[in-house]
Amino acid sequence: MRILPDPAARASRRSEASNAQDLGETAAQHYRRGYALQASAHDMPQAKGAKPGMMGRMRQWWSQFIYQWQLQAMVAPGIIFMIVFNFIPIYGLVLAFKNYTVVDTISGAPWVGWENFRIILSDKYFWDSVWNTMGISAIKLSLGFVLPIILAVMIYEVPWGPFKRIVQTLTYLPHFFSWIILGGMLINWLSTNGLLNEILNFVGINASSNYLLDADKYWGIAALSDVWKEAGWGTILYLAVMAGIDPSLYEAAEMDGASKIRRIWHITIPELGTMITLNLVLSVSALFGSNLDQTLILMNTQNQPKSEVINSYVYRIGLTQGDFSYATAVGLGVSIVSVVLLVITNVVSKKINDNQSVL
Question: Is the full-model pTM beyond 0.85?
Fold first, then answer.
């Protein structure tokens, strides 16, 4: 015979269920509290098919802003920094179309139109700096783009964790040294009695040159020293991507008899494809950029014909000689060319990656 529950017990359970439902509704109301004002704008009676007015959208935006004020407070310093140092200085680009001197104001300087750009096109020293920049950047791109990929794959394939961490630390370390320190080291190593000549003499090669005084060797010195400084740091993104690769892919390939090289070529490299494409796009767009710190440290009167790059040329013309309008015109022209290279490289990468953009 089935025993019926006591009526008092049933009433107690109903009361507990009711209280739990009330608590659940209270919690739901708490989580919906931030969106209450936003929803009220839509709940207001409106004509059929009418859209919220400007005031309604402003109230909706303000209510959302107030609800997220902690997040907005975190973002505010970065936004202020960008406005002050990235957007407000854009007004100074008008100097490229004016004849500005230190006694003028930006608005009071006389307009000269395209005159500064015509001077650039006929300036031999500017084109020398462009040639040097492209030469050094081409070497950096060919070595500095491929080497981090190879180094990242080699580090990833190392099975012994302590050795892997030691290699990562040693390769990351040069990135944290300023060019003041590294430049002083290079000047000492490449001098007549420096480390490089000592090593060459030790192995039987008679060497007594000061390599930084040889203009023809500067491109290689600048490119190789920059690659040495940044190659280890460039592996971080690739290692992060490889850490997310499914290990079962390697296990299946190993069971099918694939060698280590084939596993790298058919699994690791394709998985890195998006990151490789992104770095290629950014590297090509920076072809006309150059490391000003490195140049100012390593450049001297003997190697200047090969070491003068666009950034150092702009620095010398603008700050040393005080021709701010001409320097601004050079900087503006280089920036436009860099943006064009960025767009072209991105379009080409989309064609290669089945119409998928990395930017």
Answer: no
User: How far is the C-alpha of 29 from the C-alpha of 283, rounded, in Å?
Assistant: 51
Q: Which residue has the tokens 């064609």?
A: 351
Q: 286 with 338: CB under 8 angstroms? A: yes
Among 238, 234, 265, smallest CA distance to 140 is for: 234
Identity of residue 313: Y
> What burial class does residue 324 get, using C-beta atoms within 10 Å of its C-beta: 0-12 exposed, 13-18 middle, 19+ buried?
buried
DSSP of 261-289, one letter per residue?
Answer: HHHIIIIIHHHTHHHHHHHHHHHHHTTT-
Angle (CA) 311-313-318 rounded to 5° is: 95
| Integer Cα distance of 112 and 98 in angstroms | 5
- Write b or e for each residue in 88-106: b if 16 or more Cβ atoms lie within 10 A of its Cβ, otherwise e: eeeeeeebbbbbbeeeeee
54-76 pLDDT, tens digit per residue, is 888 888 888 888 988 999 899 99
pLDDT band at 131 (very low <50, low <70, confident <90, very high): very high
Instruction: Give the per-residue SS3 of 132-184.
Output: HHHHHHHHHHHHHCHHHHHHHHHHHHCCCHHHHHHHHHHHHHHHHCCHHHHHH
Phi, psi of 237 (to 5 degrees): -65, -40
DSSP state of 33: G
- CB of 164 closer than 8 Å to CB of 154: no
